[in-house]
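re: ur question from earlier - yeah i can do the single chain one, its not a big deal. heres the input i used so u can compare w yours
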Amino acid sequence: MVKRLIYGLIIICVVMITTALGLDRWISIKSAPYIYDNLKSLPHRQVGVVLGTAKYYRTGVINQYYLYRIQGALNAYNSGKVNYLLLSGDNAQQSYNEPMTMRRDLMAAGVPASDIVLDYAGFRTLDSIVRTRKVFDTNDFIIITQRFHCERALFIALHMGIQAQCYAVPSPKNILSVRVREVGARLGALADLYLMKREPRFLGPMVPIPAQHEIPENAQSYPAVTPEQLLELQQKISSAPGNTPHQPASTHSPNAQKTTPSAPPHSPEWGSHADK
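and the output i got, formated as tokens:
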């Protein structure tokens, strides 16, 4: 009786492991056509999404996965494969901010702040991929991460009807333990997609990349001046020493009060929330 029970447990374990490995392999095969290891063959897209990870381990040692992703983002940007970098990561705690850490390192390497967008709600891979489409109004983008992570991210995108490719950056040599955990992460992703039907934890208002400025119909057509430039020009004129605003004479009443046109509202840019 005991032997039968042991044999039964062994068979169950073998079936479960075989099923898990089979599903893992299925995800790899389905996402393979959309993964690029060579930067030269990577197609050009407007946005590159860098999936966040911790810069340091708990021991204080720097995370090689992080370094490879940052270098991959720099390579894609500097080669003209992407025009903007969307940094998506965890910001659940005040002392832990993946997007801001990536932003500082990318800016230190020469990427202008105007070409960097931060997604503070990329708590999971599913959140990062779906928010790129639904919040940042971006479809057909490039994901930047390690190959094993590419496969899971692309599988999520394909299931959600989102067009994406992935630039697979190198992985450290000691990848075995991470790859084993990845099998569990893929099973969790399958449960989220097919059983739980989960959506991102937070969505919010749409913030297109790049930002879209609404131009009034009666705006001057030439020269082209953005609302921000106009506001900056008005501030410079008003703050100039010895400069007093011109008060137009009224033809209706000698006692008419001076009216100053209000400055146009400052259109918020998608890059501004990076400093919050």
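Strands lie at 35-36, 45-51, 82-88, 116-119, 141-146, 164-169. not sure if urs matches, ping me
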